[in-house]
Design a protein that fits this description.
The chain has 197 residues and is of the alpha+beta class. The protein has four helices and ten strands. It is globular.
Length: 197
């Protein structure tokens, strides 16, 4: 795995809320700048912190990440932190191009299943077609964490069931929230990353 070149500004301490400004180029570490009206559709219940993973390996990968970022901010919740963009080899089905991956931390008022529905809609609008399991995609959006909830049903499993095997997910989360505690595995993200690598 390699991190794309770019200027990086880390939060001063783990878990410190950071503003996030959308990166203009791959590898810009997030200080995410919230819009005054971003995520107003999400204000339906008390806000929950969620972690969403983004990946793309088709076409203009950075453009798809930017578009997904914009749609998530407008429809799912306020983006509070974002990792650097990292280029990684494909996982599972390996006969395909490399991915650009990153994660976003958001404050959302949507329920877990409503959040999933919004992400699936964004994927479809950005041209994702599901033909091969783990195959090429314009954009992939996964809910990795939804607060400290454990959800295991036919439509949604949170924390993500294969999280502990995926460096391309653990590494960007550890960049912005190394002390995030996994309620199912009872370890921090940083601990899981250390065990994996």
């Amino acid at each position: 795995m390699k991190m794309s070149a770019g200027m990086t500004k880390q939060p001063a301490t783990a878990g410190t809320a950071a503003e996030a400004k959308q990166p203009a180029t791959a590898g810009t570490s997030a200080e995410v700048k919230q819009s005054a009206t971003a995520g107003t559709a999400a204000a339906k219940q008390p806000a929950t912190t969620a972690i969403i993973a983004l990946g793309s390996n088709m076409g203009d990968r950075e453009m798809y990440l930017r578009r997904a970022w914009e749609e998530i901010e407008g429809r799912a919740g306020h983006i509070t932190k974002a990792s650097s963009i990292m280029e990684t080899e494909a996982y599972g089905y390996t006969d395909q191009d490399n991915f650009l991956n990153m994660v976003l931390e958001i404050e959302t008022g949507l329920s877990p299943h409503r959040l999933l529905a919004e992400l699936l809609t964004i994927e479809a609008e950005l041209g994702r077609v599901r033909t091969i399991h783990w195959g090429p995609r314009t954009i992939d959006l996964d809910i990795i964490y939804y607060g400290d909830q454990i959800i295991d049903d036919d439509d949604l499993r949170v924390p993500h069931p294969d999280l502990h095997n995926r460096e391309f997910v653990l590494k960007p989360i550890a960049e912005i929230e190394p002390e995030w505690y996994d309620p199912k595995r009872q370890k921090t993200v940083g601990q899981m990353l250390d065990e994996l690598i």
